[in-house]
Amino acid sequence: EGEPVNAAQDRKPPKRTVSLTHPDRLYWPDAGVTKAGLADYYTEVWRLMAPFVVNRPLALVRGPDGIEKPLFFQKHAWKGMTRNVVLVKDPADPGEEYISIRDLDGLLGLVQGATLEVHPWGSNLDDWEKPDMVNIDLDPGEGVSWTEIIAAAHEVKRRFEEMGLAPFVKTSGGKGLHVVAPVKPKAEWPEVKAAMKALADGMAGDTPDKYVSTITKSKRTGKILIDYLRNGRGNTAVAPYSTRARPGAPVSMPLAWDELGGAIGPNYFTVDNTPARIARQAGDPWGDFRKAEAPIGFGGKKQGR
Ligand code: ATP
Ligand code: MN
Ligand code: MN
What pTM was computed for the model? Predict the structure, then answer.
């Protein structure tokens, strides 16, 4: 009320034809989020989420009985999967079939299959070998403050910019932040992963009291793991706007850099408060994501100070 009207509110809701069995099943008992509530949430965010989940191989976290019961990390088709979900053969290994979606009905087909988290690859089906985005996952060890995680995100931002990449930030919906950049799909996975490893090793090398870049040191109290391992072929990271199978029904929320601060924690945004956020927002903080893509490697600038 009294807020400027977002043009998006005038748009018709996207077409939706998947019917849900057990719509009242509680997936997040603590937050009161049902299967039908999850489908409604994804219908609301679809317009913003679509570019990050359509036409990519997907891994899923499924939980047929909700977050308090067993969860499955799923990369392949399962029995009873709705026909709105598309199977795609890995061109490098046609024996491997992955899950993919083309539209909102595909995502709702995943909801029908009890999908509680959506984790896309960093490359799309046009060229599986060439990533079109990179992700640096900031994983805080014990005792790391939110202020320190934000400082790490700004340091990754600076290094991305030095490489000629456009950095975007989102909450993980869990404990940390993800710094993501759109990439012109030119370089292949090994080169891109090497560039992200160099970034992580650079941070850990320059500030070893704050940052580590190897998993074996990741349990170190008071330090942040600069996790670059989301950037290999077949590796995934949670999608922007995906829900998380964790208490409170948190979501991974795209932010503007100037929103980063004490008021918004890593799991601040949820299925419950996201519709109000996206209706209120003047713009969508990741709206220019695709337009900002830049090459990594030969064409890009050199990493380092
Ligand atoms: P947090 O902020 O709590 O670290 P996150 O999404 O960054 O949240 P995780 O949930 O620990 O971190 O997952 C890290 C990544 O590893 C996920 O993005 C996911 O794509 C991948 N992953 C998670 N579980 C599995 C699994 N069982 N097998 C393979 N990859 C997985
Ligand atoms: Mn993480
Ligand atoms: Mn991680």
Answer: 0.93
Cβ–Cβ < 8 Å for 179, 151: no
Please count the residues of the chain.
305
Instruction: Return d(Cα 43, Cα 65) in angstroms, integer.
Output: 22
CA of 237 from ligand 1 middle (Å) equals: 7
Q: What's the 193 CA to ligand 1 centre distance in angstroms?
A: 17
Query: Which of 142, 131, 245 lies closest to 196, judged by CA?
Result: 131
Q: What is the overall mean pLDDT for the chain?
A: 92
Tell me the HSE value of 290 on the side-chain side, using a 13 A CA sphere.
8
240 lines ligand 1 (CB under 6 A): no
Residues 159, 304: contact at Cβ < 8 Å? no
Query: For the chain, what percentages of helix, strand and coil (3-state, to nearest 5) are there?
Result: 25, 20, 50
Q: Which residues of the chain have pLDDT under 50?
A: 1-10, 299-301, 303-305
Strand order across the 254-255 sheet: 211-212, 224-227, 133-140, 177-182, 168-171, 254-255
Helix (H, G, I), strand (E, B) or coil at 112: helix
C-beta pairs of 207-212 under 8 Å, 24+ apart in sequence: 207/155, 210/148, 210/152, 211/152
CA 286, CA 225: separation in Å to the nearest integer? 25
Query: Residue for token digits 């850099």?
Result: 257
Candidate of 53, 117, 119, 156 to mutate for ligand 1, largest count of ligand atoms within 8 Å of Cβ: 119
237 in ligand 1 pocket by Cβ < 6 Å?
A: yes
